[in-house]
Specification:
Number of domains of chain B: 1
Strand content of chain A: 15-25%
Number of strands of chain A: 30
Structural class of chain B: mainly alpha
Helix content of chain A: 25-40%
Number of strands of chain B: 3
Distance between the termini of chain B: 16 Å
Radius of gyration of chain A: 37 Å
Oligomer: heterodimer
Largest sheet of chain B: 3 strands, antiparallel
CATH topology of one domain in chain A: Penicillin-binding protein 2a (Domain 2)
Order of helices and strands of chain B: HHHEEEHHHHHHHHH
Helix content of chain B: 55-70%
CATH architecture of one domain in chain A: Alpha-Beta Complex
Largest interface: A-B, 53 and 73 residues
Radius of gyration of chain B: 21 Å
Largest sheet of chain A: 7 strands, mixed
Shape of chain B: globular
Number of helices of chain B: 12
Chain lengths: 748, 383
């Protein structure tokens, strides 16, 4: 075979050329070696850092699950749910042309994505983009189908992946919004329990990273996230819902009534277990949706605040401006923040105001406790009292005549209280105020409790006139939580419990981490004094002249005290009305406090705005709490309860007895006739009962002054306790507690 | 001078050349080790099997070794008769891509045949060696003329163009042409022609770069962008410069002695094609400048040994087969290292024996088999 081919030799010149070729190759190699060396020498350190910097992207933070907030029965008030963000990896999708159409089709059908827009993005970035957010925060149910399609054999869905995170959810929407608070986007609590218990609720994020092990295979190591603990609150979601229902009902009834805006600037309600300090319900109106905290519509109806947090006054009318649908969109920047702050804060703990007459039991209790009075004294009310050069008026400027201390509480007589306070003196009065925690924080476990230290008098700063006004709750400020906590100690035998909202901390698997027991802080008064106060406060509701009769729910006897406090500046016809009560009357288990801050009516100084709310709430709440009815029901009451589908727990009575019985209900119904009957018996002391009744308003008209007078109590409508000359020396009106950027409280 | 590069003493020609065996073995073993190190991450991420690439490569290598042994026992003149057939076979394979090619990363370069992917461009490299060696031998002194030169080079052009047009694979086209060029260079006694051609080619390249830079903002396709990215990779860090930059990071971060085998960070998804064209930069990262030097030395040793064998070949045909192999290795190694060091614009060229690729390693081992076959034909001359 070989012979067929020319046996040409590899000539000498060819060998030479081969050597030349080899030398050329050698030189090129040397050059490349130099290149390698120079890269290592010149850029080695820089590239080492760059390589390490790039590595960081390979580790992924795994989010922790924030603990839940549960109500006392384990119902979920706040929880975190895993949600999925859909990410498009354009480069990966682009690597398989056949997958592009099916993938877009699946995105459209499963997530309803506008594929035209995504397609544009994809076409422009298909060689570079690896991370493009398509849809945010979908629950697992919404991506289930898509994942199944992705996992099919030969699936043509490429370049789509899911990023996990947790989203805070509030199943009750606005339920207990002020108590719960909410979280910011980075899962940090803001306001309420979310803020106060942020450290408890937060867990530790985990981390996932890849590395090559000694065998050279890739290993993914996961340090799993540690989920946060959950808190079990003392809030009862059902009770809370009842409270909020009736606050809302009040608002709906009085919204846009006298002026545009909500039914009142603020309406607050607290229900507390008097024997433990546990808060069973705490609500305030206006409320907001915790799942949509930045919805401007929730602001509508609130007083408009400027960027400093001051209420905006219309220059022409001199009236406060309220947020309406027209001006809500104009609120921006700092002003918007101020208004949101007013909405998000918890009125029950963050706002301080002059409590008014609800503080009268405190005055009497302290005077009895320090021995200044025995409690059986009588004082003569002539409608006013001259103290320290000021003429301080009673509600009833015509005078109630001679009243016992108990009657003073029943009728809410200012003069009577001034005498009592004079008897105990400034030192005792301020000492007991301190005992009742006035001026001190209650340390309730909520973020944003107001400081009121500067809003009360001390023994050094209190003069006789201040002592006089403070005796009936004007001149000093407190918060709702301070007042109800102090009042609870008056009616539970003198035990002051720290109010609290959380009773248990549990971990993510449900095991108890910590039990939070009721904290008894001090004994404010003796059992005997407590018993006397209870009997006096019962008269407020059941007594003939009681100011709180309208607070009594059908089937029960409760006790309590009304309050009608003038705001500053005085004589501008603006009031904070309230009722602070307890049930059952003979053995108080719960305390309830309702405050209506400036009801939206022409004549605000009527505690009935508060007592009606209390009655509505208790009518439903007491049966729910398992407290048995003790009183007979009238036909009307029975119908009312049946309409509300409330189980009647009082023994049924035959109809005849019902009609003959002399229940409280008759008092109410017969109040008109009563008036005429009583005139001859007591002409001097109840002169207002002779006045003509204005058919429009239902108030009596004083023929001398033309002022409206409450036909039952004789209190002048729109009246003021202060005389004309009184200087406006006392503290501000309702104090708004706000937070500055650092989260510190700012008292304005 | 050339006599110094003749074999003074050759062990009996029945046995294969030990230096060549050791060099080839080292390259193959080293290549497999590095390939496993580089590809295990991508394998475990993409195929959930860290051995995926390694297993496929070792199969191809074993198959290639069998081919190598078979070819080494076949007298090399056997291939002279088949040279035309080899050329046609390679061309047919290339044209089969048009209907049957599978597309990977946007380019049709492979055809599936009985479950294995074949890259016709790799077969073409082998075919051009077989074909030209025979052609040049037949042309005899005609090769010394311009006309002969143009005929020799011209016959390679259909293949070069087929590779470029069908597979859009410029680098393989360049390699095939380069092999032809080197073979012609060796058999032609003068230098002038080649210097002229070399100068012409360099001038053309410079002109191309100049045009691209002038039209910087205009549209000029991805080759233009690659040239711009070559000049300033940082400016194109998110696009065409990304791979080059990542390769440079790998080289630079390796330092003198490297991070140790298996310790590369760049292979963890940062450097695209780490197991293919960019494998040399991972060698630099893991074994450092020193390791890279060793690899280059191995290739030099291989080339040097081939040169010795070619110079002692029994005839011109045998010598040219070895020269073709030398050209193939030299061009690919130089271009590959030049690409990863950003000395030339980025174009996909694999590193012989080390980069991942079954067709490549089988073709190369076929060529090694030819070299051994030629070596067998060497008769030891007594000094």
């Amino acid at each position: 075979m070989k012979e067929q081919y020319p046996q040409k030799q590899f000539a000498k010149f060819m060998r030479k050329k081969l050597v030349v070729l080899f030398i050329i190759v050698l030189l090129l190699f040397v050059f490349l070696i130099y290149r390698l060396y120079s890269i290592t020498r010149d850029n080695g350190d820089q590239y080492k850092k760059l390589v390490l910097a790039q590595q960081k992207y390979d580790s992924v933070t795994i989010p922790f699950r924030r603990g839940s907030i549960l109500d006392t029965n384990g119902n979920i008030l706040a929880t975190s749910e895993k949600v999925y963000t859909v990410i498009l990896d354009s480069v990966a999708l682009n690597s398989d042309e056949d997958a592009i159409e099916p993938t877009f089709a699946a995105l459209k059908s499963e997530f309803g994505i506008d594929t035209a827009k995504v397609r544009d993005y994809f076409e422009q970035n298909k060689e570079t983009s690896r991370y493009y957010i398509l849809v945010k925060k979908l629950p697992y149910e919404k991506i289930q189908n898509f994942i199944a399609m992705q996992n099919e054999d030969n699936s043509l869905i490429k370049g789509i992946w899911f990023e996990e995170e947790y989203q805070r959810l509030y199943p009750g929407n606005s339920l207990a919004c002020d108590v719960i608070g909410f979280t910011t986007a980075d899962d940090i609590g803001s306001y309420g329990l979310e803020e106060f218990y942020n450290d408890v609720l937060s867990g530790t994020p985990g981390r996932e990273y890849g590395f090559m092990n000694e065998e050279g295979t890739l290993e993914r190591t996961t340090i799993s996230a540690e989920d946060g603990n959950s808190i079990v609150t003392t809030i009862d979601a059902n009770l809370q819902a009842m409270v909020e229902k009736y606050l809302k009902k009040f608002n709906d009834e009085y919204a846009d009534n006298f002026h545009t805006g909500n039914g009142a600037n603020n309406i607050g309600c607290i229900i507390m277990n008097v024997n433990t300090g546990e808060i069973l319900a705490m609500a305030s109106y206006p409320d907001f949706n915790l799942n949509d905290t930045r919805n401007k519509d929730a602001l509508i109806g609130m007083p408009l605040l400027d960027e400093k947090g001051d209420k905006v006054i219309d220059e022409e009318t001199g009236r406060r401006v309220y947020i309406s649908e027209e001006n809500v969109s104009d609120i921006e920047g700092d002003a918007l923040y101020q208004n949101y702050n007013a909405l998000w804060k918890n009125f029950c703990i963050s706002d301080a105001y002059e409590p008014g007459s609800v503080s009268k039991p405190l005055t009497v209790a302290s005077a009895i406790e320090c021995g200044a009075i025995k409690g059986n004294e009588s004082y003569n009310c002539q409608g006013k009292l001259e103290v320290g050069g000021h003429e301080i008026k009673c509600h009833n400027t015509y005078g109630d005549g001679i009243l016992t201390v108990a009657e003073g509480i029943e009728r809410s007589c200012n003069v009577c209280m001034m005498y009592v306070a004079q008897a105990e003196g400034v030192n005792n009065f301020t000492k007991f105020q301190h005992n009742f925690n006035m001026g001190l924080k209650t340390n309730i476990d909520l973020a944003g409790e107001a400081r009121t230290a500067s809003l009360v008098y001390t023994a050094d700063t209190m003069r006789s006139s201040e002592l006089a006004t403070c005796s009936f709750g004007q001149g000093y400020n407190c918060t709702m939580i301070q007042m109800i906590a102090a009042f609870s100690s008056l009616i539970n035998g003198g035990y002051y419990y720290e109010p609290h909202l959380v009773k248990k901390v549990i971990n993510s698997s449900g095991a108890t981490v910590e039990n939070i027991e009721p904290r008894l802080l001090k004994q404010t008064i003796s059992q005997d004094t407590s018993d006397m106060i209870i009997s006096m406060c019962n008269q407020v509701v059941i007594g003939e002249h009681g100011t709180g009769k309208t607070a009594r729910p059908a089937g029960y006897i409760i006790g309590g005290k009304t309050g009608t406090a003038e705001t500053l500046p005085r004589k501008n016809n603006e009031y904070v009305v309230s009722f602070l009560g307890y049930a059952p009357a003979d053995d108080p288990q719960i305390a309830i406090y309702v405050v209506v801050d400036r009801p939206n009516v022409r004549y605000q100084d009527d505690a009935k705005f508060a007592t009606k709310i209390v009655r509505n709430i208790l009518t439903e709440a007491l049966p729910y709490l398992g407290i048995f009815m003790t009183e007979e029901l009238s036909v009307k009451e029975r119908a009312e309860l049946e309409e509300l589908k409330i189980e009647i727990t009082t023994p049924a009575k035959p109809e005849e007895t019902e009609e003959n019985a002399e229940g409280e209900n008759q008092d109410e119904a017969a109040s008109e006739t009563e008036t005429t009957e009583e005139i001859p018996e007591n002409p001097n002391s109840e002169i207002w009962k002779t006045f003509e009744i204005d058919p429009e308003t239902g108030y009596a008209i004083d023929p001398n002054t033309g002022a409206y007078v409450d036909p039952e109590t004789g209190a002048t409508i729109g009246g003021s306790f202060s005389d004309e000359n009184e200087e406006e020396s006392t503290e501000s009106e309702i104090t708004d507690i706000t937070y500055d950027e650092n989260g510190n409280q700012v008292v304005q | 001078m050339a006599d110094r590069f003749t074999l003074k003493k050759l062990s009996t020609s029945r046995f294969l050349d030990s230096t060549l065996i050791i060099t080839i073995s080292l390259l193959i073993i080293f290549g497999l080790v590095v390939l496993f190190s580089v590809s295990s991450y991508d394998g475990s991420v993409t195929y959930n099997d860290s051995m995926y690439y390694f297993r496929k490569q070792i199969t191809s290598t074993l198959f290639g070794l069998v081919i190598m042994f078979l070819v080494s026992f076949v007298p090399y003149h056997f291939w002279a008769r088949l040279s035309g057939l080899a050329y046609i076979f390679a061309m047919v394979l290339l044209f089969l891509i048009i209907p049957f090619g599978t597309e990977v990363n946007g380019a049709k370069r492979w055809i599936k045949f009985m479950g294995t992917s074949i890259q016709p461009a790799e077969v073409a490299k082998l075919a051009i060696i077989l074909f030209l060696a025979n052609l040049v031998c037949r042309m005899g002194s005609a090769i010394t003329t311009w006309k002969g030169m143009i005929i020799a080079l011209g016959t390679s052009m259909p293949m070069v163009l087929a590779i470029y047009i069908i597979t859009r694979n410029l680098s393989s086209a360049i390699i095939v042409f380069g092999i032809a060029f080197i073979m012609c260079f060796i058999v032609s006694p003068d230098y002038k022609k080649f210097v002229l051609m070399g100068v012409f080619l360099v001038a053309m390249c410079a002109l191309a770069v100049y045009i691209v830079v002038r039209n910087k903002d205009g549209a000029m396709g991805y080759r233009g962008e690659r040239i711009l990215a070559w000049l300033d990779p940082n400016a194109y860090a998110a696009g065409k410069g990304f791979q080059t930059l990542q390769a440079l990071y790998a080289i630079g971060s390796g330092g003198i002695f490297g991070k140790g085998i298996g310790q590369s960070m760049q292979k963890l998804g940062f450097l695209p094609e780490a197991q293919n064209d960019m494998i040399f930069s991972i060698i630099c990262e893991e074994l450092g400048f020193f390791g890279a030097l060793c690899v280059i030395m191995l290739f030099l040793l291989l080339l040097w040994r081939c040169m010795i064998l070619a110079n002692n070949a029994a005839d011109l045909y045998g010598a040219l087969l070895i020269v073709g192999f030398m050209g193939h290795i030299a061009i690919q190694v130089i271009l590959n290292i030049a690409v990863v060091t950003n000395t030339i614009p980025n174009t996909g060229i694999s590193l012989p024996f080390i980069s991942y690729g079954g067709s490549s390693v089988v073709s190369l081992l076929f060529e090694v088999g030819l070299v051994f076959s030629v070596q067998r034909g060497i008769v030891v001359r007594d000094s």
